[in-house]
Amino acid sequence: MAEGLFTVTPLDAPRAARRHSVGVPISELDAVVILAPGTETELPDGEVGELCVRGPYTITGYFDVRPEPEAAETMAHNARAFTSDGFYRTGDLGMVRFEEGYRCFSIEGRLKDVIDRGGEKISVDELESLLTGHPKVAEVSVVAMPDPRLGERGCAFIVPVPGAMPNLLDLQEYLAGRGVAKFKWPERVELVEALPRTPVGKIDKKAMRAGITTRLEAETPAATG
C-alpha cells in the first residue's frame, strides 16, 4: 500500500500465521482497526471489515495546491478517506485472526469488490474462486450490477472453455452443490471471448460494471409520461 503500513510475519510466528495472514505491523507505533464499512464502528476480532490504519509513515491527508473550488474536492475526499480520529481507510477488507494464539491480520479482499445485495454483503473473491472450478469455465469475473429493489445483484462475466456454453442455471447448481447460500449466487451471466483488461494487464472490473449498467439501462423500457 503506497499510503503507508508495512507488515511482517516474524520468523518465530506459527506456520499457520505465515500461511494465512499478512502478519503484524513492523512498527509498534502503528495502530490498526477493523471497522464496519462506511462507519467508525470497530468490529470484534474474527469479523471482516475495512482495514483502517494510523501511524508514523501512513499519510495524514491528501495535499492540493490548486485554488478553490478544485481544492475543496480534495478536502471532501479527505473527509471520506479518513476517520474523524485520523485513521486512513485503505479500502481493503481485513480481519484480526488468531493462529495458534498468535494475533495477526489477514486481507480478505477489496471493499469495492463486495456486492451489497439488499444489505447482505457478498464477497466477489469467494464466488470467483469457486466458479473457476466449474468445468465449463475458463475465466470468470464477478461484478455488481445495479438493481432498483436490492441496490445491487451479482453478474458473472464468463470466458467459457472451448465448445462450452455455461448458463446461469449451470453456475447456480454448481454453487448450490458446494453449499453456497442462495443470496450469494450470481443472477446474470455474460459470456465473453475475453475479460477486459487495463493497460497493465489487470482485469478491468470498472469497465465491466459500466458495461452491464449500460446494457441494463438499454433493456429497461423508457418511462412514458
TrEMBL record:
<comment type="similarity">
    <text>Belongs to the ATP-dependent AMP-binding enzyme family.</text>
</comment>
<dbReference type="Pfam" id="PF13193">
    <property type="entry name" value="AMP-binding_C"/>
</dbReference>
<protein>
    <recommendedName>
        <fullName>AMP-binding enzyme C-terminal domain-containing protein</fullName>
    </recommendedName>
</protein>
<dbReference type="InterPro" id="IPR045851">
    <property type="entry name" value="AMP-bd_C_sf"/>
</dbReference>
<dbReference type="Pfam" id="PF00501">
    <property type="entry name" value="AMP-binding"/>
</dbReference>
<keyword id="KW-0436">Ligase</keyword>
<dbReference type="InterPro" id="IPR000873">
    <property type="entry name" value="AMP-dep_synth/lig_dom"/>
</dbReference>
<feature type="domain" description="AMP-binding enzyme C-terminal">
    <location>
        <begin position="126"/>
        <end position="202"/>
    </location>
</feature>
<dbReference type="InterPro" id="IPR042099">
    <property type="entry name" value="ANL_N_sf"/>
</dbReference>
<dbReference type="GO" id="GO:0031956">
    <property type="term" value="F:medium-chain fatty acid-CoA ligase activity"/>
</dbReference>
<dbReference type="InterPro" id="IPR025110">
    <property type="entry name" value="AMP-bd_C"/>
</dbReference>
<feature type="domain" description="AMP-dependent synthetase/ligase">
    <location>
        <begin position="2"/>
        <end position="63"/>
    </location>
</feature>
<dbReference type="GO" id="GO:0006631">
    <property type="term" value="P:fatty acid metabolic process"/>
</dbReference>
